[in-house]
Design a protein that fits this description.
Layout lengths: L3 H8 L1 H16 L4 H9 L4 H13 L6 H14 L2 H16 L7 H5 L2 H17 L3 H15 L2 E2 L4 E2 L4 E2 L6 E2 L4 E2 L4 E2 L4 E3 L11 E2 L4 E2 L4 E3 L3 E2 L4 E2 L4 E2 L7 E4 L4 E5 L5 H4 L11
Parallel strand pairs: 1-4, 2-5, 3-6, 4-7, 5-8, 6-9, 7-10, 8-11, 9-12, 10-13, 12-14
Antiparallel strand pairs: 14-15
Helix pairs in contact: 1-2, 2-3, 4-5, 6-8, 8-9
């Protein structure tokens, strides 16, 4: 008969690997034992560990961690897609970020990963018309992680935000599946219009550090936006754009730029 740990690995290999890595981490650094036990090994599931982590990060004098934990547990029970997306984001971070060597790292330490999971909670609250609570989560994400994502924005699965500092995603923005972006990216508007005013990012897109994508424009699937670019017009699929304002400088160079994370352009060595 299979052991409970073997059964767990078959049901949820991501969670099983996190637990194994947590045990190894404690063996290597016993001073982290308390934090890792309470954050990982104390929990029976990935959803429970994630809810605990998010409640600690979002807590403040205005709202205690226990209350937030109840809210997050309720959200995960009502909408399993939140946890499925969190797993996809975690695997994406491990596969694409060269600084990520363990599944444990995003859950415990990476603010880009944690910020997007907190956004997902805020978006669920927004869809449930719990508007003020959604705004509270947005505020705490901004204060805690330096990331400002409006809870009405729509973001797909398998998203990695590397470093994440100063990322801004506006209210009517849409981000597809398997997108990667680096720090200081803005998906913003161009004025005071109140309707659909933010970018629509296709699947598999790579957005370099400091890039600004502004207005109700569409970025085609599997395109690359170079670091520091300002994109003001639609971009076709599978292209590389660079400059201020951005222009097409070549093909994307591969089928999935967001996965390869190749940010060079062989035409002139930049991207």
């Amino acid at each position: 008969m299979a052991t409970p740990q073997a059964q767990l690995a078959e049901i949820d290999p991501v969670w099983s690997r996190i637990r194994s890595e947590a045990q190894d981490a404690i063996a290597a650094e016993p001073l982290m034992g308390g934090a890792i036990h309470s954050g990982v090994l104390h929990h029976r599931s990935f959803a429970s560990a994630l809810a605990y982590r998010m409640s600690l990060k979002l807590a403040s004098d205005e709202m205690q961690a226990q209350i937030l934990r109840e809210i997050i547990d309720g959200a995960y029970a009502a909408e399993p897609e939140l946890v499925a997306s969190a797993r996809a984001d975690l695997v994406a971070t491990y596969e694409r970020d060269p600084a990520c060597h363990r599944f444990l790292q995003p859950l415990m330490y990476f603010k880009g990963y944690q910020a997007i999971q907190a956004y997902r909670l805020g978006h669920w609250l927004w869809e449930e018309e719990r508007i003020d609570l959604a705004y509270f989560v947005q505020m705490r994400v901004s204060e805690t992680f330096g990331v400002d994502i409006h809870p009405a924005a729509r973001i797909g699965r398998g998203v990695m935000i590397d470093h994440a500092h100063s990322v801004v995603i506006g209210e009517t923005a849409v981000v597809g599946d398997n997108v990667s972006m680096l720090h200081s990216v803005t998906l913003g508007g161009t004025g005071k219009e109140e309707q659909d005013r933010h970018p629509k990012i296709g699947n598999g897109v790579l957005i370099g550090a400091g890039a600004k994508v502004l207005g109700n424009i569409r970025i085609g699937d599997c395109s690359r936006i170079a670091a520091g670019s300002v994109v003001l017009t639609d971009i076709p699929a599978c292209k590389t754009v660079a400059g201020v304002p951005a222009r097409i400088v070549g093909e994307a160079g591969c089928a999935q730029p967001s996965v390869s994370m190749n940010q060079t352009f062989e035409g002139d060595g930049t991207a």
